[in-house]
Amino acid sequence: MCPTRARPPLLSAVEITLELAVISSGVVLVLLVPTMIWIRLRVQWISRVFEFLCLLPLTIPAIVLVVGLAPIYNFIRHYQLSALQLFWAYVILALPYAYRALSAGLNAIDVTTLSEAGRSLGASWFTVIVRVIAPNMRQAILNALLLTSALVLGEFTIAYLLLYNNMQVNLYYISRNTPNAGVLFATSAAALMFAFVLLLVLSYVGRRRRRGRG
Q1: Residue 6 DSSP class
Q2: Residue 1 forms part of a structural domain
Q3: What is the pLDDT of residues 1-36, one digit of tens each?
Q4: What are the φ/ψ torsions at residue 190 (nearest 5 degrees)?
Q5: Residue 50 pLDDT more than 90?
C-alpha cells in the first residue's frame, strides 16, 4: 500500500484560514446579536459602555494586542493546540466592525414594537430575539459576517508574531523563499475572489430581501 501523501503546507494554511473565518464569524454573532438586542430592550443605559468596549480594539495597535496575548498563547502552545486558537484574537479585532454593522441594522427597525408584539403572543425572550428580531436584521448580520470573514482572510500581523501559520503568513514565506511567484499570485487572487463572491452574495440577498418587503 502506498503511503498517504501529506497535504501541501499552503493547502493546510488555506484550510485553517477558512475555518478561522467561519469560527470567528459565528462567535462574533453569538456574542453580539443577543447582547445588543437585550441591551436595546432591557438595559439601554449601558449601551454607551458596551459601545465603548466594542470599539476599543480600534484604538489598540496590533503589536500591543500581540504583546498582551503572547503569554496566553505561549501557555496554549504547550498543549499542542492548532492555529484555530487564533479565533479569540480575531473576534477581538472584528468587534468594532461587526458592532457598527449590527448597530445600523438595529437602528433600522422598531425593536420595541417587535418585542412587545412577540411577548403579547406569548413568546419567550429567547424566541423574541431569535425568531422575531434577528430575522429582521438579516442584512446587518450578513454585513457583519462579510466584514469578519474579510478581516480573517487578510490578517497577517497577529498570526506572524504569535508564530502561527495561516494563509497570509504562508504567502509571505512563499514570496521570500520561492523564485516562482505563480503560487503566490494564484492564492492571493483566490482569496480576493472569495471575498468578492461573498460581497456579491450579500448584495444579492439584500436586494431580494428589499424586493420581498416591497
Answers
A1: P
A2: no
A3: 344 444 457 778 888 888 898 899 999 999 999 999
A4: -65, -40
A5: yes
DSSP 13-27: HHHHHHHHHHHHHHH
DSSP state of 57: G
State the Cα–Cα distance between residues 145 and 195, nearest whole angstrom.
Answer: 11
pLDDT at 193: 79
| Domain extent at residue 182 | 9-213
Q: Kindly give, in sequence order, each residue whose CB lies less than 8 Å from that of residue 85, ignoring residues fewer than 6 positions away.
A: 73, 76, 164
The CA distances from residue 46 to 17, 71, 159, 201, in Å, are 35, 31, 33, 35
**Nearest C-alpha neighbor of 21 from the set 121, 73, 98, 118:** 98
For 127-187, the DSSP string reads HIIIIIIGGGGHHHHHHHHHHHHHHHHH--HHHHHTT---HHHHHHHHHHH-S--HHHHHH
Distance of CA 172 to the CA centre of its chain: 22
What are the b/e assignments for 4-29, b being 16+ CB within 10 Å? Answer: eeeeeebebbbebbbebbebbbebbb
CB 46 within 8 A of CB 169: no
The CATH number given to whatever domain includes residue 58 is 1.10.3720.10
CA angle 64, 69, 65 (to 5 degrees): 20
Number of domains in the chain: 1
Q: What's the chain's average pLDDT?
A: 81
